[in-house]
Amino acid sequence: MELNLNGKTEQIQDVQTVADLIGHFDLAVTQVAVELNEELVPRAKFAESILNEGDTVEIVTFVGGG
């Protein structure tokens, strides 16, 4: 599937949902925020948020520091 991911066109295989995409990149669900087609996706909806060819996805990871 072709997605516009963080500003770049990417071919990503075997993903159907936002949860699949996060798993594809081995990211921790609790440490990311996801925007799908300019709308924030609540964590509770990651598994039911279906990705479609050409969707725009922004994934932001949280970094702790001190």
Q: Which structural traits does this protein have?
A:
single chain, 66 residues, mainly beta, Ubiquitin-like (UB roll), 5-stranded mixed beta sheet, 1 helix, 11% helix
Description of the molecule:
The chain is mainly beta and 66 residues long. The chain has a single domain (2-61), classed as Roll (Ubiquitin-like (UB roll)), CATH 3.10.20. 11% of the residues lie in helices and 33% in strands. The chain contains 1 helix and 5 strands; from the N terminus they run ββαβββ. It has one helix at 18-24, and strands at residues 2-5, 8-11, 32-36, 39-41, 56-61. The chain has a 5-stranded mixed beta sheet, with no helix packed on it. Strand 1 (2-5) and strand 2 form a beta hairpin. It starts with a strand and ends in a 5-residue tail after the last strand.
Taking all Cα atoms into account, the compactness measure Rg is 11 Å
The proportion of residues forming helix, as a percent range, comes to 10-25%
Q: List unreliable stretches of 5+ residues.
A: none
Strand content: 25-35%
Q: What's the number of domains?
A: 1
**Straight-line N-to-C gap:** 39 Å
**Shape, please?**
globular
Question: How are the strands of the biggest sheet laid out side by side?
Answer: 2-1-5-3-4
Specify the structural class. Answer: mainly beta
Overall pLDDT: 95
Elements, N to C (H/E): EEHEEE
| Number of helices in the DSSP assignment | 1
Number of DSSP strands?
Answer: 5
* CATH structural fold name: Ubiquitin-like (UB roll)
Q: In the CATH hierarchy, what is the architecture at level 2?
A: Roll
The CATH H-level homologous superfamily: Beta-grasp domain
Q: What is the CATH first-level class name?
A: Alpha Beta
Largest sheet geometry = 5 strands, mixed
